[in-house]
Automatic annotation (TrEMBL):
Highest taxon in the source lineage: Eukaryota
UniProt organism field: Hericium alpestre
Range of residues in the leader sequence: none
PROSITE patterns: GST_NTER (PS50404)
InterPro entries: Glutathione-S-Trfase_C_sf (IPR036282), Glutathione_S-Trfase_N (IPR004045), GST_UstS-like_C (IPR054416), Thioredoxin-like_sf (IPR036249)
Chain ranges of the GST N-terminal domain: 1-78
The protein, known as: GST N-terminal domain-containing protein
Length: 234
Protein backbone atom coordinates (compact mmCIF):
# COMPACT_ATOMS: atom_id res chain seq x y z
CA UNK A 1 0.00 0.00 0.00
CA UNK A 2 1.68 3.18 -1.17
CA UNK A 3 2.36 6.00 1.28
CA UNK A 4 1.01 8.62 -1.10
CA UNK A 5 -2.34 6.86 -1.56
CA UNK A 6 -2.91 6.82 2.19
CA UNK A 7 -1.88 10.49 2.29
CA UNK A 8 -4.40 11.38 -0.42
CA UNK A 9 -7.12 9.54 1.50
CA UNK A 10 -6.20 11.39 4.70
CA UNK A 11 -6.40 14.70 2.86
CA UNK A 12 -9.71 13.79 1.24
CA UNK A 13 -8.34 14.63 -2.21
CA UNK A 14 -10.05 12.61 -4.99
CA UNK A 15 -7.68 10.73 -7.28
CA UNK A 16 -7.38 7.97 -9.84
CA UNK A 17 -4.68 5.30 -9.65
CA UNK A 18 -2.90 4.37 -12.87
CA UNK A 19 -0.80 1.21 -12.62
CA UNK A 20 2.55 1.35 -14.40
CA UNK A 21 4.86 -1.52 -15.33
CA UNK A 22 8.44 -1.20 -14.09
CA UNK A 23 9.77 -0.91 -17.64
CA UNK A 24 7.34 1.95 -18.40
CA UNK A 25 8.26 4.19 -15.45
CA UNK A 26 11.03 6.11 -17.21
CA UNK A 27 9.12 6.66 -20.50
CA UNK A 28 6.06 7.86 -18.57
CA UNK A 29 8.16 10.18 -16.40
CA UNK A 30 9.78 11.71 -19.46
CA UNK A 31 6.39 12.09 -21.15
CA UNK A 32 5.03 13.94 -18.10
CA UNK A 33 8.22 16.00 -17.76
CA UNK A 34 8.69 14.59 -14.26
CA UNK A 35 12.16 14.96 -12.74
CA UNK A 36 14.27 11.94 -11.78
CA UNK A 37 14.00 11.11 -8.09
CA UNK A 38 17.73 10.38 -7.78
CA UNK A 39 20.71 9.11 -9.77
CA UNK A 40 22.31 5.69 -10.11
CA UNK A 41 25.86 5.30 -11.42
CA UNK A 42 25.70 8.93 -12.52
CA UNK A 43 22.55 8.45 -14.61
CA UNK A 44 19.09 9.83 -13.76
CA UNK A 45 16.79 7.32 -12.06
CA UNK A 46 13.04 7.67 -12.50
CA UNK A 47 10.85 6.09 -9.84
CA UNK A 48 7.31 6.00 -8.53
CA UNK A 49 5.22 7.28 -6.85
CA UNK A 50 4.36 10.20 -9.06
CA UNK A 51 1.28 12.38 -8.97
CA UNK A 52 -0.04 14.78 -11.57
CA UNK A 53 -2.49 17.33 -10.19
CA UNK A 54 -4.94 18.53 -12.87
CA UNK A 55 -6.06 21.43 -10.66
CA UNK A 56 -2.58 23.01 -10.62
CA UNK A 57 -0.74 21.26 -13.44
CA UNK A 58 1.97 20.17 -11.00
CA UNK A 59 3.82 16.87 -11.37
CA UNK A 60 5.42 15.71 -8.12
CA UNK A 61 7.75 12.76 -7.55
CA UNK A 62 8.76 11.02 -4.28
CA UNK A 63 6.43 10.19 -1.41
CA UNK A 64 7.74 12.81 1.03
CA UNK A 65 7.69 15.55 -1.61
CA UNK A 66 4.11 14.53 -2.42
CA UNK A 67 3.16 14.80 1.26
CA UNK A 68 4.60 18.31 1.50
CA UNK A 69 2.91 19.30 -1.75
CA UNK A 70 -0.46 18.08 -0.45
CA UNK A 71 -0.02 20.06 2.78
CA UNK A 72 0.83 23.23 0.85
CA UNK A 73 -1.85 22.86 -1.82
CA UNK A 74 -4.64 21.31 0.27
CA UNK A 75 -4.07 22.71 3.78
CA UNK A 76 -7.40 21.61 5.23
CA UNK A 77 -7.79 18.55 7.44
CA UNK A 78 -4.83 16.49 8.61
CA UNK A 79 -1.35 18.00 8.28
CA UNK A 80 1.00 15.28 7.09
CA UNK A 81 4.24 17.11 7.93
CA UNK A 82 3.53 19.47 10.85
CA UNK A 83 5.63 22.62 10.98
CA UNK A 84 9.05 22.02 12.48
CA UNK A 85 8.99 18.23 12.03
CA UNK A 86 10.61 17.90 8.59
CA UNK A 87 13.92 16.69 10.03
CA UNK A 88 12.25 14.10 12.26
CA UNK A 89 10.00 12.81 9.47
CA UNK A 90 12.97 12.54 7.09
CA UNK A 91 15.10 10.77 9.69
CA UNK A 92 12.40 8.20 10.43
CA UNK A 93 11.92 7.38 6.75
CA UNK A 94 15.70 6.96 6.43
CA UNK A 95 15.94 4.45 9.31
CA UNK A 96 12.81 2.48 8.42
CA UNK A 97 14.52 0.20 5.85
CA UNK A 98 17.20 -1.02 8.27
CA UNK A 99 14.61 -1.59 10.99
CA UNK A 100 11.81 -3.18 8.99
CA UNK A 101 11.46 -3.04 5.26
CA UNK A 102 14.73 -4.61 4.13
CA UNK A 103 13.97 -7.72 6.22
CA UNK A 104 10.36 -7.86 5.05
CA UNK A 105 11.33 -7.43 1.40
CA UNK A 106 13.69 -10.40 1.59
CA UNK A 107 11.09 -12.45 3.45
CA UNK A 108 8.49 -11.86 0.74
CA UNK A 109 10.69 -11.54 -2.35
CA UNK A 110 9.64 -14.85 -3.94
CA UNK A 111 5.97 -13.98 -3.36
CA UNK A 112 6.22 -10.50 -4.84
CA UNK A 113 7.41 -11.61 -8.28
CA UNK A 114 4.44 -13.86 -9.21
CA UNK A 115 1.98 -11.25 -7.92
CA UNK A 116 3.08 -8.89 -10.72
CA UNK A 117 1.98 -8.95 -14.34
CA UNK A 118 4.39 -10.76 -16.72
CA UNK A 119 6.25 -7.64 -17.91
CA UNK A 120 6.86 -6.35 -14.40
CA UNK A 121 7.64 -9.81 -13.04
CA UNK A 122 10.42 -10.28 -15.59
CA UNK A 123 11.87 -6.84 -14.79
CA UNK A 124 11.60 -7.45 -11.03
CA UNK A 125 13.38 -10.81 -11.28
CA UNK A 126 16.20 -9.55 -13.49
CA UNK A 127 16.80 -6.42 -11.40
CA UNK A 128 16.86 -8.28 -8.06
CA UNK A 129 18.99 -11.12 -9.36
CA UNK A 130 21.49 -8.61 -10.74
CA UNK A 131 21.51 -6.67 -7.46
CA UNK A 132 21.92 -9.70 -5.17
CA UNK A 133 23.99 -11.84 -7.55
CA UNK A 134 21.76 -14.90 -7.06
CA UNK A 135 18.65 -16.45 -8.60
CA UNK A 136 15.52 -15.09 -6.95
CA UNK A 137 14.81 -18.35 -5.09
CA UNK A 138 18.28 -18.28 -3.53
CA UNK A 139 18.26 -14.66 -2.33
CA UNK A 140 16.34 -15.55 0.83
CA UNK A 141 15.74 -19.32 0.98
CA UNK A 142 13.05 -20.72 3.25
CA UNK A 143 15.70 -21.59 5.85
CA UNK A 144 16.24 -17.84 6.46
CA UNK A 145 12.58 -16.86 6.84
CA UNK A 146 12.26 -17.27 10.59
CA UNK A 147 15.38 -15.18 11.19
CA UNK A 148 14.13 -12.47 8.82
CA UNK A 149 10.73 -12.35 10.54
CA UNK A 150 12.45 -12.15 13.93
CA UNK A 151 14.58 -9.22 12.74
CA UNK A 152 11.51 -7.39 11.44
CA UNK A 153 9.60 -8.19 14.64
CA UNK A 154 12.46 -6.75 16.69
CA UNK A 155 12.38 -3.66 14.48
CA UNK A 156 8.71 -3.13 15.29
CA UNK A 157 9.51 -3.48 18.98
CA UNK A 158 12.29 -0.92 18.65
CA UNK A 159 9.83 1.59 17.17
CA UNK A 160 7.36 0.70 19.93
CA UNK A 161 10.01 1.72 22.45
CA UNK A 162 10.36 5.12 20.80
CA UNK A 163 6.60 5.64 20.76
CA UNK A 164 6.35 4.75 24.45
CA UNK A 165 8.27 7.95 25.18
CA UNK A 166 5.05 9.81 24.33
CA UNK A 167 3.29 8.20 27.27
CA UNK A 168 0.30 5.89 27.43
CA UNK A 169 -2.79 6.24 25.23
CA UNK A 170 -0.95 8.10 22.48
CA UNK A 171 -1.04 6.13 19.26
CA UNK A 172 0.89 8.43 16.94
CA UNK A 173 4.37 9.90 16.79
CA UNK A 174 2.98 13.41 17.26
CA UNK A 175 0.74 12.26 20.10
CA UNK A 176 -2.94 12.32 19.22
CA UNK A 177 -2.66 13.28 15.53
CA UNK A 178 -1.17 11.17 12.72
CA UNK A 179 1.71 12.47 10.63
CA UNK A 180 3.94 11.23 7.82
CA UNK A 181 5.89 8.83 10.06
CA UNK A 182 2.62 7.10 10.97
CA UNK A 183 1.70 6.90 7.28
CA UNK A 184 5.01 5.13 6.63
CA UNK A 185 4.37 2.60 9.40
CA UNK A 186 0.80 1.94 8.33
CA UNK A 187 2.02 1.41 4.76
CA UNK A 188 4.24 -1.39 6.07
CA UNK A 189 1.32 -2.90 7.99
CA UNK A 190 -0.90 -2.72 4.91
CA UNK A 191 1.79 -4.37 2.79
CA UNK A 192 2.08 -7.20 5.33
CA UNK A 193 -1.69 -7.61 5.37
CA UNK A 194 -1.85 -7.79 1.56
CA UNK A 195 0.85 -10.45 1.22
CA UNK A 196 -0.03 -12.53 4.28
CA UNK A 197 -3.74 -12.01 4.95
CA UNK A 198 -5.61 -11.22 8.14
CA UNK A 199 -5.62 -14.88 9.21
CA UNK A 200 -1.87 -15.38 8.80
CA UNK A 201 0.46 -16.17 11.66
CA UNK A 202 2.49 -13.05 10.93
CA UNK A 203 -0.48 -10.69 11.03
CA UNK A 204 -1.92 -12.21 14.21
CA UNK A 205 1.46 -12.12 15.95
CA UNK A 206 1.98 -8.49 15.04
CA UNK A 207 -1.51 -7.43 16.10
CA UNK A 208 -0.91 -8.83 19.59
CA UNK A 209 2.71 -7.68 19.93
CA UNK A 210 4.13 -4.69 21.79
CA UNK A 211 1.18 -4.25 24.16
CA UNK A 212 -1.23 -4.10 21.24
CA UNK A 213 0.55 -1.06 19.76
CA UNK A 214 0.15 -2.10 16.12
CA UNK A 215 -3.46 -3.18 16.51
CA UNK A 216 -4.26 0.28 17.92
CA UNK A 217 -2.38 2.03 15.12
CA UNK A 218 -4.09 -0.12 12.50
CA UNK A 219 -7.48 0.51 14.10
CA UNK A 220 -6.91 4.27 14.03
CA UNK A 221 -5.63 4.37 10.44
CA UNK A 222 -7.42 1.54 8.63
CA UNK A 223 -10.11 3.94 7.38
CA UNK A 224 -7.45 5.60 5.21
CA UNK A 225 -6.09 2.33 3.83
CA UNK A 226 -8.14 1.90 0.69
CA UNK A 227 -7.78 2.34 -3.02
CA UNK A 228 -9.55 4.98 -5.08
CA UNK A 229 -13.20 4.06 -5.23
CA UNK A 230 -13.13 2.98 -1.58
CA UNK A 231 -11.93 -0.59 -2.22
CA UNK A 232 -10.71 -1.93 1.14
CA UNK A 233 -7.98 -4.49 1.73
CA UNK A 234 -9.01 -8.15 1.93
Amino acid sequence: MAHHRIALNMKGVPYKTIWVDYCDIEPLSLKLDAPPSTTRAGAPLYTLPLIQDPSTGATVVDSFAIAKYLDATYPGGITLVPEGTDAFQTMFIDVLPSLLTQHLLLLHITRIAPSLNPHSEDYFRRAREMHFGNPLAEIAPVSTHEALWKQAFEGFSHVHGWLNANGECKVFFMGHKPSWADVALVSVLAWLRIYNGRESREWKELMTADEGRWARLWGAMEKYVHRDGGEALP
